[in-house]
Every structure is written in structure tokens, then in C-alpha cells.
Design a protein that fits this description.
Elements lengths: L1 H7 L3 E4 L13 H15 L4 E7 L3 H9 L3 E11 L8 H9 L3 E12 L1
Parallel strand pairs: 1-2
Antiparallel strand pairs: 2-4, 3-4
């Protein structure tokens, strides 16, 4: 996100994952946790927060919309594990070719200033 932050001329941060154990959901824990994170980031002068949610995750989409996030994009997200760093170009190339993709899926991107 650092590259985007420079072109957007804003300090921004992205959420990689937020999970609440299934038997602890619907109690406000996720809302409380994310509210505290947002407050802390605002105090650290971050001005933009983004999260990407799977398109078929209606509760997750409702969660972010309920916290005032705006839907800014819908698209496909791809994920892949990264290989450990190496100085050997051949090793890096074959390592990347042999590293399986984690998966892909349709997602919604949310942003909140």
C-alpha cells in the first residue's frame, strides 16, 4: 500500500485478516476490536483504511458497511504464498514456479477515511 499512499498523497493501511471464533460472534467483539484499531491508526496519523472482503461473505460486508466503510471496488483477488528470499536467480525462479497458489475469489474492497 505504500506505493498507493504516495500517489494518493495519504497515509494508508490495509487489513489482511480479521477473525472472531464462530462461537464468539454477534457479541460486538469484532466491532470493538476494529474500532480500537481505527482509533489507534488515526492517532498515528493514518488517514485511509482499506479492507477486502470475499463477495460471498454477506456478514463481513454488512460488518464493514455498518462501520461506515464505503464500497469502492468489486473484483477478483488472487493469493499465493511467497518463497523464502534467495540470491540465486535460478532457485528463485523454480521456487516460485513450484509454489502453489492459495486461491482466488471475487471480493469487495472497502475504504474508510
Amino acid at each position: 500500500m505504500e506505493l498507493f499512499a504516495q500517489s494518493w498523497q495519504q497515509t494508508c493501511v490495509g487489513l489482511l485478516d480479521l477473525q472472531v471464533e464462530p462461537n464468539s460472534r454477534r457479541r460486538g467483539l469484532g466491532r470493538y476490536l476494529l474500532s480500537q484499531v481505527l482509533r489507534h491508526l488515526r492517532d498515528q496519523t493514518f488517514s485511509l483504511f482499506e479492507a477486502r472482503i470475499e463477495l460471498d461473505n454477506a456478514p463481513g460486508i454488512g460488518f464493514f458497511e455498518g462501520l461506515g466503510f464505503a464500497r469502492v471496488e468489486t473484483g477478483t483477488t488472487y493469493q499465493r504464498e511467497l518463497i523464502p528470499p534467495t540470491n540465486d536467480l535460478h532457485e528463485a525462479r523454480t521456487g516460485l514456479e513450484n509454489t502453489p497458489a492459495i486461491g482466488s475469489g471475487e471480493s469487495v474492497q472497502f475504504r474508510r477515511a
